[in-house]
Design a protein that fits this description.
Layout: E1 3-6, E2 30-39, E3 46-52, E4 60-62, E5 68-72, E6 76-92, E7 95-96, E8 101-102, E9 107-110, E10 115-122, E11 127-129, E12 136-152, E13 155-159, E14 167-177
């Protein structure tokens, strides 16, 4: 396996349609894993419920022979107003460079305790192995009253298969709240 450069690209809802304009990593002896995130939105018993995600993140470089790489993705924020509760979930597509695939099941998402504003009671944060077909719960608010936010900076760990080929790998990680 060659040196792998892991550069997630996290896209907010306004640019969630695709990965146009994401540059390939120029180094010939490296493999890059690029991740795009889009924010989903759904209303529950609340008058406002939105989720926002960072524009970009960089997990760093995995040296030859590395079995995984991890790093923080940047702040994910849920904004809610009114009364009710919410659940934030995450899904991912497989990574692909057009030749090789890193399955979504190789991505582990770890959500720390969120910081909050306003009157919101959160459940315990959760860690999840991501899936391209099943939404994984990562944060919950069991009680919301008034204008609130909850912000967390998740850690993403990608298990690198030994057969990883050089190239730029892309996937879409989708954060949603309902």
């Amino acid at each position: 396996m060659s040196v792998a450069r892991i550069r997630p690209v996290l896209l907010a809802a306004a640019v969630a349609a695709g990965l146009a304009g994401v540059p390939a990593h120029p180094a010939a002896a490296s493999s890059a894993v690029t991740i795009a995130t889009r924010a989903g939105r759904a209303l529950q018993d609340l008058t406002t419920l939105t989720i926002s995600v960072p524009a970009r993140a960089d997990l760093g470089t995995a040296p030859a022979g590395a079995t995984s790489i991890s790093g923080d993705l940047g702040d994910v924020t849920v904004t809610a107003a009114g009364t009710g509760s919410w659940t934030a979930t995450v899904t991912s597509t497989d990574f692909s460079n057009g030749v090789s695939t890193i399955p979504a099941a190789n991505i582990h998402y770890s959500a720390p305790v969120a910081t909050t504003t306003g009157s919101v009671v959160l459940g315990a944060p959760e860690s999840a192995t991501l899936s391209n077909s099943i939404s994984q719960t990562v944060q919950t608010a069991v009680a919301v009253a008034g204008d609130t936010t909850a912000t967390w900076n998740p850690t993403l760990t990608v298990t690198l298969p030994p057969s990883l080929t050089q190239g730029t790998y892309t996937a879409i990680i989708t954060h949603s709240v309902a």
